[in-house]
Amino acid sequence: MQNPGFIVVEGPIGVGKTSLARRLAETFGSELLLEGAAENPFLERFYRNPRAAAMQTQLFFLLQRAQQMQELRQGDMFEPVRVADFLMDKDRIFAKLTLDAEEYKLYEQVYSHLTIDVPKPDLVIYLQAPVDVLMKRINKRGIGYERAMEPHYLHALCDTYTRFFHFYDEAPLLIVNAADINLVENQSDYDMLLEQMAQAKRGRHYFNPVPQGLLDGDRKHG
């Protein structure tokens, strides 16, 4: 496929965005930007007591991501491809979900100053999966503080993501149903994604693949 430029992989916790971003960066030999959740000293206490630590957690992420975007903007703009596992705009998704009205007003003031001239992606890949699938993946990867996450929080997060991307038009958008595919370990799934990426030049696109096992089953019973 042609040089895709600046690629962003997004989606709720547990959907596999970081793993896919790593593979895409390896495929294209590109610079990789990761959001670094483990570096946030407030995240563990947020999962224990969301109301008490929401503002600190959110501001740390905002400052961290803004610095990464600033470094990207000031870097070599002739870098062939860049891949990130976060969209700067998505910071507001979590802010709206976790902050109260007064906190959000303060957050918005900081956000507006930090996000001037943020580079726009050339393609956004939005991964979706049902909450029960996300919970299984979160439990499987075994990060202690994530296991304290309540399903209702994950439901609210997924709903907020859906609303956000329903109106998103800042870049070509590829919406992927990632519930029954493995984009990291299954080569055919990954190849299908690359084909979809090559076609996503503008506007909104949907990739809803049928799992290979179901296709094989259809052939057997056809």
TrEMBL record:
<dbReference type="Pfam" id="PF01712">
    <property type="entry name" value="dNK"/>
</dbReference>
<dbReference type="InterPro" id="IPR050566">
    <property type="entry name" value="Deoxyribonucleoside_kinase"/>
</dbReference>
<feature type="binding site">
    <location>
        <begin position="11"/>
        <end position="19"/>
    </location>
    <ligand>
        <name>ATP</name>
    </ligand>
</feature>
<feature type="active site" description="Proton acceptor">
    <location>
        <position position="85"/>
    </location>
</feature>
<dbReference type="GO" id="GO:0005737">
    <property type="term" value="C:cytoplasm"/>
</dbReference>
<dbReference type="GO" id="GO:0005524">
    <property type="term" value="F:ATP binding"/>
</dbReference>
<keyword id="KW-0418">Kinase</keyword>
<dbReference type="InterPro" id="IPR027417">
    <property type="entry name" value="P-loop_NTPase"/>
</dbReference>
<keyword id="KW-0547">Nucleotide-binding</keyword>
<dbReference type="InterPro" id="IPR002624">
    <property type="entry name" value="DCK/DGK"/>
</dbReference>
<keyword id="KW-0808">Transferase</keyword>
<protein>
    <submittedName>
        <fullName>Deoxyadenosine/deoxycytidine kinase</fullName>
    </submittedName>
</protein>
<dbReference type="InterPro" id="IPR031314">
    <property type="entry name" value="DNK_dom"/>
</dbReference>
<dbReference type="GO" id="GO:0019136">
    <property type="term" value="F:deoxynucleoside kinase activity"/>
</dbReference>
<keyword id="KW-0067">ATP-binding</keyword>
<feature type="domain" description="Deoxynucleoside kinase">
    <location>
        <begin position="7"/>
        <end position="198"/>
    </location>
</feature>
<feature type="binding site">
    <location>
        <begin position="137"/>
        <end position="141"/>
    </location>
    <ligand>
        <name>ATP</name>
    </ligand>
</feature>
